[in-house]
Amino acid sequence: MQEKKPETATKNPKKANLLDHHSIKHILDESVSEIVTSRGYVEDVRMSNIRLVMGTIIIIIALLAQFYKKKFPENRNFLIGCIVLYIVFNGLLQLIIYTKEKNAILFTYPPAGSFTSTGLVVSSKLPRFSDMYTLSIASADPKSISANQPVQFTKSVTQWFTKDGVLAEGLFWKDVEALVEEYAREPKKSK
């Protein structure tokens, strides 16, 4: 499979505010998503869709409570029910985010034509007041027989940004591709 290199690197360089770690992490995460999807992995948006549906249900519950036809003393039981449902659905949404997503920036399906039956979960960390960026690639289904061992690297973001805050995409691209290759050739775990 021939890899695509970013053509936008020379036309429109990605620039971050070096004093804002959220800006740096956002640009790096966005680039990681581009690199992994260019390698034939298709993004799996099911988790995002579940979160959107849960959020929509929460909003509908809040709107029903706000615009119910009866005034307060008469609709007390209805409001209590709406409040309970609001709390339950918000709790479920937070539980899904905490248990399933964690630090994930990308979920993928397996690449077309591959023998693996599991996609990837790509996650990243950039702690506050630190320049060390950790990128991890793991199987979307770690219990699958075709799942490889997770791989990760931790490097300083100063390697990938100029003093003006421009991302050196070529260097970052090589590091991420090397990590994807390491995951792909990692021997299967023994059961």
UniProtKB/TrEMBL annotation:
It comes from the Eukaryota. The chain crosses the membrane at residues 48-65, 77-98. It is found in: Endoplasmic reticulum membrane. One of its GO terms (cellular component) is signal peptidase complex. One of its GO terms (biological process) is protein targeting to ER. It is a multi-pass membrane protein. Keywords: Endoplasmic reticulum, Membrane, Transmembrane, Transmembrane helix. One of its GO terms (molecular function) is peptidase activity. InterPro entries: Spc2/SPCS2. Its main location: endoplasmic reticulum. Belongs to the SPCS2 family. Component of the signal peptidase complex (SPC) which catalyzes the cleavage of N-terminal signal sequences from nascent proteins as they are translocated into the lumen of the endoplasmic reticulum. Enhances the enzymatic activity of SPC and facilitates the interactions between different components of the translocation site. PANTHER family: MICROSOMAL SIGNAL PEPTIDASE 25 KDA SUBUNIT (PTHR13085), SIGNAL PEPTIDASE COMPLEX SUBUNIT 2 (PTHR13085:SF0). This is Signal peptidase complex subunit 2.
